[in-house]
Amino acid sequence: MSPDAHFWNAESYQMAHRFVCPEVFDSTIRGVACDLRVGLDVVTIAEIANAIDRFGDRYIRRVFTVRERAYCLATNRKASAARFAARFAAKEATVKVLRPARPWFEWRAIEVQRHRSGWCEIRLHDSAAELAARQHLDTTTMALSMTHGDTRAAAVVLARADIVRPGVHRGRGTPD
Question: CA separation (Å) from 85 to 17, 88, 105, 151?
Fold first, then answer.
């Protein structure tokens, strides 16, 4: 048996799913499965820099929150454009996770918050938070990774959505 065949046996497959979607394997929470959603976006830093040059503060205020603007503007122009580009890629990746029915224009409802230690996370506000709630997205465990180089910025967002099956008993007591 090859090492790969052993790794992907039924037990390891079940363990991997238990990590991602523990509710599926928890006998006290029946009727719940989950949908793992991934959003990825890559933008060119020059495009964001050009939008800032062309529209200035009007563009920045329309797309980014006060905290995002403060962080991104606290450096030189080149680094500022890269920071804005990475945050815009994170917002686009989040939209891909949210899967709205219509094109998304409420960019400030998706915020990238930077922590003192340097890691960042997604915070949803207003319409984005409402959409996430309707879709049973677990926003407390959304994961974000961002990066930028000389010419491009990228972001990946990972989120888990619980899928509740109507009429299925979810544990002890009375059915939902």
Answer: 34, 5, 16, 10
pLDDT of residue 104: 86
Q: Which amino acid appears at position 4 of this protein?
A: D
Q: Which of 123, 127, 125 is nearest to 159 (CA)?
A: 123
- How far apart CA 173 and CA 83 sit, in angstroms, is 50
What angle, 0 to 180 degrees and rounded to 10, lies between the N-to-C axes of helices 126-134 and 77-98? 30
pTM attached to this predicted model: 0.76
148 exposed, middle or buried (CB, 10 Å; 0-12, 13-18, 19+)? buried
Q: How far apart are CA 40 and CA 113, in angstroms?
A: 18
- The residues near 121 (Cβ < 8 Å, ≥ 6 apart) are 112, 113, 115, 142, 144
Integer CA distances (angstroms), 98 to 34, 63, 157, 159, 174, in order: 14, 17, 10, 9, 31
> 113 forms bridges with which residues in the sheet?
121
pLDDT (tens digit, 9 = 90+) per residue, 34-77? 788 999 999 999 999 999 999 999 999 999 999 999 999 999 98
- Beta bridge mates, 122: 112
Pairing of strands 110-114, 32-44: unpaired
